[in-house]
Amino acid sequence: MVVGCLIAEHIRQGFRVLEQPEQTKDMTKEDFMEHHRVWCCSTTPEKAICGVSRIWVFSLARRKGIATRMLDTVRNSFMYGGHLTKEEIAFSDPTPDGKLFAKKYCEMPAFMVYNFIG
Ligand SMILES: CC(C)(COP(=O)(O)OP(=O)(O)OC[C@H]1O[C@@H](n2cnc3c(N)ncnc32)[C@H](O)[C@@H]1OP(=O)(O)O)[C@@H](O)C(=O)NCCC(=O)NCCS
User: Fold this and answer.
1) pLDDT per residue over 54-66, tens digit each?
2) Of 7, 19, 95, 111, whose CB count within 10 A is highest?
3) What number does the ligand 1 atom closest to the CA of 92 have?
4) Is 25 inside any structural domain?
């Protein structure tokens, strides 16, 4: 049974996600907004090496560290003899789930994105 899949590709640059201003209205719907909010990114390119084109985990197997393990494996095997840092990774047009995962995985809200329609 396949529980996870990650497709990675070589890239040259990414763009940092910009933090959205906090909602002042409808604070009781904060969780809802977090899941439906779009994201904005910087227009300044930064060096990136590995692009996460697709990442998916079977719904009943989520929040068990599977995506984390898949991406750790990619970082250790993507370049022969090298190890990628979390700063060298970018995510292709992240979904709301992908955004929450990327923020946690990269240990920063300003993770990098690529491959989006401006
Ligand atoms: C995004 C996705 C791949 C994450 O897979 P996962 O195996 O559940 O991720 P992990 O268990 O490694 O998550 C690591 C941390 O990221 C954060 N995180 C991941 N998914 C989250 C979510 N839906 N909501 C909030 N935080 C989330 C959590 O902090 C989590 O740690 P915790 O469970 O100890 O709190 C999975 O939700 C998925 O397949 N979603 C549908 C497809 C998709 O949207 N892909 C993203 C494309 S960019």
Assistant:
1) 999 999 999 999 9
2) 111
3) 48
4) no
